[in-house]
Amino acid sequence: MVSDLVSLSDASLVLGVSAERVRQLVVAGDLPAQRFGNAWAVPLDALIARRDSSATGGRPLGAQRAWEEIESDRFDLERPGRYQRRARVVRCEMSQSAVDSIPNLFGALVGGVRGAIGYRAALVEDGSSDLYLADSAFAGLADLVAYLVDPLGSIRLRIVDDDAWAIIPAGPLIPRAAVALDLLDSADPRHRIAAAELLDDH
Questions:
Q1: DSSP code at position 148
Q2: pLDDT tens for residues 169-186?
Q3: By C-alpha distance, which of 184, 157, 190, 168 is closest to 76?
Q4: Dist. CA 26–CA 8, nearest whole Å
Q5: CA end-to-end distance (rounded Å), the chain
Q6: Domain ranges of the chain
Q7: How far apart, in whole angstroms, are the C-alpha atoms of residue 195 and residue 119?
Q8: How far apart are CA 16 and CA 82, in angstroms?
Q9: pTM for this entry
Q10: Closest alpha carbon to 25 in 1, 4, 49
């Protein structure tokens, strides 16, 4: 399902910042967007998720520190913006068989909705995938897997700095707190409820 797209000026109203600030977020890769000629359009669900997660503020942690907190009792779900640097997100499209092969080929860990389902959250698959992999593994991805970078793609490759990757326990699933953070990137209220339940169950 394609998200509703809004202009930068409309996005600025949702976020309560200037249109220029929204453009800066888009250009920096902190907000997904699609370019149409000279104009940008931003998915409404990404705006709502950013608005809701940044309301609690806090300076973002570096990748290693973010993973240390995700793995500890100090993790704070009320301040999800603090953990945004846990991984660099590359949105793309690829076949389902390619998605399924990445954990075996590259040691990727499953997050997002599929990860939540793996932790027994009451969600159903929605066609999206979140896969965490080390930066060094991502460097070789294009040699073995066909994918197309798409700012509105349903596949989110979450690329983790190699030093931070060493902190993450082996799995098939990324730790619960990271799955909860993935769910908070969505504007779907069911995902937000599941995020809180994941941590409560833990």
A1: E
A2: 988 999 999 999 999 887
A3: 184
A4: 9
A5: 32
A6: 5-54, 63-201
A7: 11
A8: 20
A9: 0.76
A10: 49
